[in-house]
Amino acid sequence: MKLFGKNHIIISVITFVILFLMNYIGNDLPDKLQRAVLTAFAGVIGLSVGLFILNKGKNDNSPPQNFD
Length: 68
Known about the structure:
2 helices, mainly alpha
């Protein structure tokens, strides 16, 4: 999956909405909006970092030598 491509943006929006709703609906504290937004934003950042690391080794033309 291309980082910041069409599919990545769609998955990021879906992830943000799901995490936001899970945290906003299930929280009774007075700062539930801020917590829900920060948690959802952190989830999207984590998803992007994970996809960056996964996508980094896709086009590697020089694999390690003597790999068994």
